[in-house]
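PROTEIN DATA CARD
Card holder: Alpha/beta hydrolase
Chain length: 316
Origin: Aureimonas flava
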Amino acid sequence: MTLDPQAAKVLALGEAADAPPFEAGTAAEARRAYRASYLALRGALEPVASTQERSFRGPGGAIAMRVHRGYGAPDTAAPALLYLHGGGWVIGDLDSHDDICRWFANAARCVVVCPDYRLAPEHPFPAAIEDAAATLAHLHACADEHGLDAGRIAVAGDSAGGNLAAVLALMARDATVPPLEAQLLLYPNTDARQTADSYRRFANGFGLTSRTMRWFRDQYVRDADDIADWRVSPLLAESLSGAPPAFVLVAGQDILADEGAAYAERLRAAGVPLVLSRRADQIHGFASAGRYIDAARQSVLEAARAWTELRPHAAR
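Structure generated from the sequence above:
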């Protein structure tokens, strides 16, 4: 597979920075390093119709959230997208994926809500998914206050955020949280066992390394038993039947490539309406490098279109 020259440039920039890997320090140090890197890589912060900083009471205290209303989104009864940012459950914040959230808001003419969910290791599994579930419940309960249509809420996320989104979608299927119209998963983490062959093929030299991903997982889980819990590894869920319609983006040169493709195949086999996008020449996290990689914004627009295409298949 040929690597996208723009992705190769991003990798070269990372090598030139010669920063220590996240696993060489503490979580706090990783967050500081990540902030410096994402500010240098993220795409343009598109203007949106409005932005609000809100908060509500969650299971572990106040949850801050950023709310973008895209251009063309109606003032009332707007479709909404709950966006769960990536970052290995350890890093990332309301700014790290703000470019992606704004792109979604304008492309889908919707309201995008991004919660600042609790991070590991200070708050290990299941804190992040509890906060995601609480945010979804809040959006349903306060739909009128936020100008949303409670029947048209989807969830999206990238990497570890894609993991949380996939889990939340299965919880919605099981009616343990309010319903979701769709799930939009960008290179999601679906199998914490980390045994897929892509962990060997792309272990080093492609951005996210297998060693860093192992560190992220070990910060998140409480013990080895959590790894097999479907709320950590949704690929291991007994059934995916009845899950919300899905868009799955797989980056071809990513240690998570095989588990993302496997999850999409299980969704398809279970009869879940699916749009699968394969970017064979891309690396993990490329959507967060929009300053250099054109495919970043293009893939978000593709996901937004897929949401519209999948809407007729959503359960009512």
